[in-house]
Design a protein that fits this description.
Strand order of the largest sheet of chain B: 4-3-2-1-5
Oligomer: heterodimer
CATH class of chain B: Mainly Beta
Order of helices and strands of chain A: HHHHHEEHHHHEEHH
Radius of gyration of chain B: 14 Å
Number of strands of chain A: 4
Mean pLDDT of chain B: 95
Shape of chain A: globular
Largest sheet of chain A: 2 strands, parallel
Strand content of chain B: 35-45%
Strand content of chain A: 5-15%
Radius of gyration of chain A: 20 Å
Order of helices and strands of chain B: EEHEHEE
Mean pLDDT of chain A: 92
CATH architecture of chain B: Roll
CATH superfamily of the largest domain in chain A: Nitrile hydratase alpha /Thiocyanate hydrolase gamma
Number of domains of chain A: 2
CATH topology of chain B: SH3 type barrels
Number of helices of chain B: 2
Number of domains of chain B: 1
Structural class of chain A: alpha/beta
Shape of chain B: globular
Distance between the termini of chain A: 47 Å
Chain lengths: 210, 94
């Protein structure tokens, strides 16, 4: 499999470590798809490239717009995919994106207890901890305890809502806009919106901490 | 779209662990919650998982449970909630 002649290769160069069982399986499936003419190596490469181009920065742009434009926020909460497309962002394969707004009274945090459903078509790959059994099994039972481990201590008067995305919905948290940001423009606001705040395990960064 | 439940309806999640792919985790089975919203109709993952067409589409709901209903020793606030997506054939009136 790993000879030096690349003419037979239907998969990208292997990483510089011994492949794991999962990597071997992916490589074998990909090689078969290419050999059988179902996909070309270039199509696979392009799909990976496109996936890698999606980042939390796209979600941050969406949130910043929602912070400065209440009408946009209303459209985002009603039909997230359509609202996101207004910004020229094409959400990939995800079936349906649903936005959930965090406020002074309500805090949403997202999990997929069954696997690792995540709005990949907007934010790209989830962080490793999001896929861990540890996070998935504990955040539903003890959300406040898990959030505390992330450094977020919520007031008992705040209603914590865990969103378990078990089906076709992909949840995007709109973190609350930090105070002291009234004078900021959209681009500057977007820089306060981190990946973790889009999942709900953190708040948006206060302006002083940038 | 035909849907059996509406927002606000009390529902109980059916109990069952068939030896096949399902998307209804054990921790909500048998529990009573309220329909928060109807998402729409989606292909049935229990068919899609085996190469089926997923038809007929199933109504999919966001169902809300008080955390205290799910976990006897829930340590957080009494107002905390868990919301989860459940397909209609896993729900019954409660």
């Amino acid at each position: 499999m790993h000879d030096d002649s690349h003419d037979d290769r239907h998969v990208p160069p292997a990483p510089d470590h011994d492949p794991t069982d999962f990597e071997k399986r992916v490589e074998a499936v990909q090689a078969l798809l290419v050999e059988k003419g179902i996909l070309t190596a270039d199509e696979v490469r392009r799909a990976v490239e496109e996936m890698d181009s999606r980042t939390p920065a796209q979600g941050a742009r969406v949130v910043a717009r929602a912070w400065v434009d209440p009408a946009f926020k209303a459209r985002l909460l009603a039909d997230a995919k359509a609202a996101i497309s207004e910004l020229g962002i094409t959400v990939g394969f995800d079936a349906t994106i649903v936005a959930a707004e965090n406020t002074e009274r309500v805090h949403h945090v997202v999990v997929c207890t069954l696997c690792s459903c995540y709005p990949r078509g907007l934010l790209g790959y989830p962080p490793d901890w999001y896929k861990s059994l540890n996070y998935r099994s504990r955040v539903v039972v003890d959300p406040r305890g898990v959030l505390k481990e992330f450094g977020l201590v919520l007031d008992p008067n705040v209603e914590v809502r865990v969103l378990d995305s078990t089906a076709d919905m992909r949840y995007l948290v709109i973190p609350a806009r930090p105070s002291g940001t009234e004078q900021m423009g959209e681009e500057e606001l977007a820089s306060l919106v981190t990946r973790d705040s889009l999942i709900g395990v953190a708040e948006a960064r206060p302006p002083a901490m940038r | 779209m035909m849907s059996r439940f509406r927002a606000g309806d009390r529902v109980r999640v059916r109990v069952g662990s068939p030896p096949r792919h399902v998307r209804t985790p054990c921790y909500v089975q048998g529990k009573i919650g309220r329909v928060e919203r109807l998402h729409g109709a989606y292909r049935n993952p229990e068919s899609l998982a085996y190469g089926g067409d997923g038809l007929p589409r199933q109504a999919l709901y966001l169902v809300r449970f008080p955390q205290s209903e799910l976990w006897a020793k829930y340590a957080g606030s009494a107002r905390d909630q868990l919301l989860i997506d459940i397909y209609e054939h896993w729900l019954e009136p409660a």
